[in-house]
Amino acid sequence: MRISMLDIEKSFGNNKVLDKARIDIVPGEVHAFMGENGAGKSTLMNILTGVHKKDAGKILINDVETEFSNPKEAEKNGISFIYQELNVLPDMTIEENLFLNKEITKKFGFVDKKAMREKSKEVLKSLGVNIDPNTVMSNLSVGEQQMVEICKALMTNAKVIIMDEPTSALTDAETRRLFEVISNLRANKVSIIYISHRMEEIFEISNRITVQRDGQYIGTKNTTDTTEDELVKMMIGRELKERYPLRNNEIGEVLFEVSNLSVENVINNISFTVRAGEILGFSGLMGSGRSEIMYALFGDVAKSSGVIKINGKEVNIKSPKDAMDHGIGFITEDRKNEGLLLNKSIKENITLSNFNSLSSNGFIKSEMEKQAAENSNKMFNVKTQSINTETGNLSGGNQQKVVIAKWVLTDPKVLILDEPTRGVDVGAKKEIYNIINDLSKKGIAIIIVSSDLPEVIGMSDRIAVMHEGKLQGILDKEDATQENIMTLATGGDIYGNDKKDIK
To answer: What span, in angstroms and rounded, lies between the C-alpha atoms of 165 and 148?
Structure first.
């Protein structure tokens, strides 16, 4: 299927989000679509699939001018969109999600459950997903749910599949399997529009790359003819010199200490320390227990054993409120569901965790709330016209800044950031890295959990590596190579007989 979108324009009210945008897709190619958050990539794809109506321009499909009324019509015509924000029904099974409104029926309209079960197994197997189709979606990891979404698209016999940040929640093994599936699809003349901020994936998987900035078409490059630096300049309009800030602040005494922390059947006997002003990275494959440690530290998951100390004093944390009362802030990887109220304003979100300091006799002091929000908004450079803007209308990078601002306003001693730049463009990443670095300079003990190895290496003073619920080792900066991290993450040993103290 050949798709040409030419000089597409779109405005929402007085806000023009697309201005002569364009993209051209040929059969059997992986076409990367890049740009900063807010560049209008999703809007252009939503116009292609009938979610939005264009204001001007042309859409040609196999040289015929076409415009779909809704995503269902686009899907029937061979175009499927896998959204970054998963579109699953959590209380239904995998099989029920796969066949929703597409049930296989027998004579007289009865549902053929046996046929649906076999088809479910077949499509799951094609992606290397070894899960019973009768499993309820809420029991799956985010990565497993993502694979089910990809399975749904494969079942439509699509000729063009749009994938928006498809690997953001996948393990390395799942990503490898996805790339194999993409290669097979390409061999069968299926085209993939691949939206991602992960440069290494773009250069590995794509044939061509289109860059969009501020709603405008910047250019299309053959992947083999361009470089990462050139793409960054096309995306943000300038060269991005150093990706990670220089770490030169003074690291103080041990501020946060964890001893023999265990969560039943999940993590086993974890011990580590974080000093004032230090950034401790946590790495490991998905399912290694990285995030579960953080939920246990924050009191959101019950620990079966372990001692937590802040400034040398043992603290008893049984709930998130306990953690906050002791000065622990936690930015989870799922900002949309756990970090923000998307239908509330920036002001309301920033002050959400600070009612005690902004209220009197149970009533919020409006002027104090407004001032706190405006100060935080300015400090973190949230790109918006007003603190009264709904947070759901912000780009991913700006949403993440709002989450960080919310927790910084609580004046934490310890700040945990789980996947702080997932789904965030390269320019916003640099801003977030600078924010984290500045916070560490103020003496906050910072923990970063990340599946992005260059990120965790670039930002951390030391790196703790997890494998199957156990802490395999903590690497000093000079030892923190990708090879050493992956050796530990897969259960290997880099220490030999001279094993270091991993605290």
So the answer is: 15
Give how far Cα 71 sits from Cα of 30, 31, 104, 301, Å. Answer: 21, 20, 21, 39
Whether 498 shows a pLDDT value over 60: the answer reads no
- Say if residue 188 is in the same domain as residue 288: no
What is the rounded distance in angstroms from the CA atom of residue 139 to the CA atom of residue 26? 38
- Asked if residue 347 and residue 300 are part of one domain, the reply reads yes
Domain CATH for 356: 3.40.50.300
Tally of domains in the chain = 2
Can you say how many angstroms the Cα of residue 406 is from the centroid of all Cα atoms in its chain? 19
Strands (E), 86-238: 160-164, 191-195, 208-213, 216-222
CB 347 within 8 A of CB 388: yes
Beta strands (DSSP E) in 284-398 are: 305-310, 313-315, 328-331, 359-360, 363-364
Q: Return the bridge partners of 246, or none.
A: none
Q: Would you state the pLDDT for residue 44?
A: 96
Please give the model's pTM, rounded to 2 decimal places. Answer: 0.66
Rounded CA-CA distance 367/358 in Å is 9
Mean pLDDT for the chain overall = 88
In this structure, the answer to whether residues 145 and 37 fall within a common structural domain is yes
- Quote the domain boundaries for residue 138: 3-236
Query: What's the average model confidence in pLDDT over 264-270?
Result: 92
Give domain status of residue 378, yes or no. yes
Q: For 439-464, write each residue's pLDDT tens digit.
A: 999 999 999 999 888 899 999 999 99
Kindly state the tokens that stand for 436.
């984290």
**For residues 266 and 289, what is the distance between their CA atoms, to the nearest angstrom?**
6
Mark which of 236, 267, 284 sits at the end of a domain: 236
pLDDT digits (tens, 9 = 90+) for 125-139: 887 788 899 999 988
Q: Which residue has the higher pLDDT, 114 or 367?
A: 114
Distances (CA, A) of 173 to 45, 178, 285, 328: 28, 9, 9, 33
Main-chain dihedrals φ then ψ at residue 152, nearest 5 degrees: -60, -40
pLDDT, greater one: 338 or 270: 270
353-385 confidence digits (pLDDT tens): 776 666 666 666 677 778 877 887 787 778 777
